[in-house]
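Side project, low priority. Logging it here so it doesn't get lost.
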Amino acid sequence: MKNNDQILNLFENYLAQMQFPEEPELLYKPILYSMSGGGKRIRPTLLMLACEAFGGDVQQALPAAAAVEMFHNFTLLHDDIMDNAEVRRGKPSVYASWGDNVAILSGDAMMIYSYRLLSEVPADKLARIMEIFTTTALQVCEGQQYDMDFESLQKVSVVEYMRMIELKTSVLLAGAAAIGAVLGDASDEDCRQIYRYALELGLAFQLQDDLLDSYGTQEELGKRIGGDILEGKKTCLMLNAMSRATEEDREVLRSTHLDASLSEEHKIARVKAVYDKYDIPHLINQQISLRFERALSILDSLAIPKERTEHLRVFAQNLMGRKK
């Protein structure tokens, strides 16, 4: 069995050999720019690891892995337009470099290309894989809409937030795992279980990302610390604090990011003081650990030898920055 690094290298080599037409340049150049822009490649890596765990041929899984990564990058192109984001992975976004019209059309082409890639999977598995992929793709769009809806809502519950991040972030990871399992000829039950494993892992990862935004380092997060606070975003920290705070502290949480008299550092410190008062970091860490341990425990339920799940365990530990 190939380890995680070998799987990643195999995928990167496959991606590097993909060719796009030269014309029209403003359609295809942004796609190449986006796909070669780095990223963790966590979704294609998990797809191929799941395929291998169930005894499948990872070479056969490469087109599906590329389809998932292509779709993921398509969503980023459109997200950057909606968020007016000028930077993506430390470089100018497609939106910033070419404008919103190019980013929209190139993103559309990437989504279409992802379906072309999926058509290369073995014919006997195509219908099942297409069902998983299209359901997942629609759910990602639903999650993005909920995220945008939350910006204008006065009140969002923790349950609603968790459902949003499940749709926006976790289901694509879970769908990738399930597609890999189908390619490995896993049973229907094992496909459901590997989906649950990835769903829980994705939730843990997003909760950790929310926590690191306020309490991590710039090296850990890859961007400035406190961005969510400065934007007044309804993250798991904000919503858990709002559900526990006094009305006075809720007003601090609601209004601090709008106070022009405060420096950015003061705004971040003021909101974090409320978080600390209600022990929110500890609470979120507990939720992260619960999701992470639940994901690992699901691997024990798979109907394959335990040694075949080892690389999936390492994947989870690496994703969460944890040691064995």
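Brief comment: The chain has 16 helices and two strands.
Revisit when time allows.
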